[in-house]
Amino acid sequence: MTEIFASLINWFDAVFIQQFDTWVLIGFLAQACFTMRFVVQWIASERAKRSVVPVAFWFFSLFGGGMLFIYAIQRQDPVFIAGQGMGLIIYIRNLWLIANERKAAMAQTD
Question: What is the pTM of this model?
C-alpha cells in the first residue's frame, strides 16, 4: 500500500509541481474563466426559475475558450486545439446572432 501511495505522490509531483510554469498558470486561469460560464448560467437560471443562457455565458465561453485555444497551441495538443477551435466558432456565431437580434429589436422600437 505504501508503494502505491509513493507512486501517487511521485505522479502528482511530476504532473503538478515539476512541470509548473507560466503556461500552466495561464491554462488554469483559462480553465477558471471557461468554468465561470457555467456558474453564470446556473445563477441566471436559478434567479429566473427556468433554464436561461445569459449573454455573459457566451462571453465567458469566448474568452475562456480563446485562452484555452492559445494554451493548446502552445502545448501542441491536436485534440485540444480542434475542440477549442470549433467551440470558438460556435461562441462567436451565438454572439453574432444575439447582436443581430438586438439590432432588429432596436429597429422595431424606432
Answer: 0.80
Which is nearest to 65 in space by CA: 91, 94, 28? 91
SS3 81: helix
For residues 26 and 71, is the Cβ–Cβ distance under 8 A?
yes
| Segments making up each domain of the chain, as ranges | 22-109
Q: What is the pLDDT of residues 56-70, one digit of tens each?
A: 999 999 999 999 999
Contact criterion met (CB below 8 Å) for 27 and 68:
yes
CB contact at 8 A, 56 and 40: yes
Distance CA 14, CA 57 (A): 34
Choose among 47, 82, 51: nearest CA to 68. Answer: 82
